[in-house]
Write a structure and sequence with these properties.
Helix 1 runs antiparallel to helix 2 and helix 1 crosses helix 3. The chain has 117 residues and is of the alpha+beta class. The chain has a three-stranded antiparallel β-sheet with strand order 1-2-3. The chain has one domain. It contains four helices and three strands, in the order E-E-H-H-H-H-E.
């Protein structure tokens, strides 16, 4: 996974692959539309802000078929045809992520979104 985070002053700059940004947008949207109990109102505000930032840079968010695009992004990030989250231990997941980082080719600029807050 090619993800880059850096900070300058009070700002954080996060760069993630496009498929992962689509999955993150879907997750944040799900959290914002759920009745999940958060510990502090600031957490809800941060979720709303993050959803707005992601929706502004992920062009798929404005498409009618966002849910099908979200499904494809989930499968590209974590294919369920071969494995499921239920049958993987945290140690195995960590090992798989390390292996993937070692063999994954460099992402092109077109496959990466930069989110600045």
């Amino acid at each position: 996974m090619k993800a880059v985070a850096s900070y300058q002053s009070q700002n954080i700059h996060l760069s993630v692959e496009k498929d992962k940004a689509v999955v993150l947008l879907g997750l944040v949207n799900k959290l914002n539309n759920s009745q999940i109990q958060l510990d502090h109102p600031a957490e809800r505000k941060v979720l709303w802000d993050l959803e707005c930032m992601l929706a502004g840079v992920v062009e798929e968010a404005r498409q009618v078929d966002f849910h099908s695009r979200l499904h494809r992004a989930r499968e590209a990030t974590w294919p369920t045809r071969r494995r499921t989250a239920q049958n993987l231990s945290p140690e195995l997941v960590k090992q798989m992520c390390i292996q993937k980082e070692c063999i994954q080719k460099e992402s092109s600029v077109e496959d990466t979104l930069v989110i600045s807050a």
